[in-house]
Design a protein that fits this description.
This protein is an alpha/beta fold. The chain has a single domain (8-280), classed as NADP-dependent oxidoreductase domain (TIM Barrel, Alpha-Beta Barrel). The chain contains 10 helices and 10 strands. An 8-stranded parallel β-barrel has the order 1-2-3-6-7-8-9-10. A two-stranded antiparallel ribbon has the order 4-5. Helix 4 (80-94) runs parallel beside helix 5 (114-133) and helix 8 (227-234) packs across helix 9. It is globular, with a radius of gyration of 19 Å.
Amino acid sequence: MRESDPRIVLGLHRSRYERRILTSALELGIDAIDTSFNYRGFSAHSALSEVASDLLPRFTLSTKVGFFPAAGQAEHSLDPGRLREAMEQTNRDLGRAPDLVFLHNPERSLTGSPDAEQDALHMACAALEAAAAAGLCGAWGISSWDPRRLPELAVGTTPRPDVLMVRGGLLAGIEVLEASESLAARWDLGTDQLWAMSPFGGRATDPLWGNLDPQVFIQESDDALSSLQSAFRAAYWLPRVGRVAVGTDNPSHLRELIDALRYEADIGNVRMYRRLLRQRAGRQPL
């Protein structure tokens, strides 16, 4: 069994919730998993408890609230009462309090005037802060797929999250990258408090990754890394994060990602890539 490595979080978005991938993760030194209240048709938490209740104490477990079942589909809400109820149900379904709960994609319900949006974000964050104080989770954060509106709303007395998780990697786009960094700076969050998700832009099986060569972003790889490994390693710098949440049900794939962490990113080429992204978006270079 390898020594624990905090840089990788096993994401369970499209997981089959099989015990094998959880035991393999532990053997490989990955002891953090991330799921959500709405994953697996709102059954992710109970599925985890059913297949691995004895393993869950060995993991640092993060989850998310914000999406709710409605007439056979999902709807999003920042209503503090619904968020609290979801966290209480999360505790029941898991049989334990999660270590971290994210407010899930708050931008989905931020509509209306700027004052109304700011109030909605404030009350939702306050609900998670209160839930953490009550012992329903160890800490709380925000997970945002599109954080571009959030920096201007996270002002005044809006509670400060413990962790921010954002879309990262080569395909994230400059607006998302810079909004994520702006939001983290507004809350004075360090690198270890900033996580990236979706380092492959959705699916590692996308044919795109067979036609790109991200090894240019890796120092002295000597062609030792695959395109996926190189893209994964570069994701830690787009934006600069301490952890990356990545999903797979294949232990071999997980092992390849761990092996990629032995290499260092070429920061000069990463910065050049960011400048090119800014130019493409019509922005002035920094």
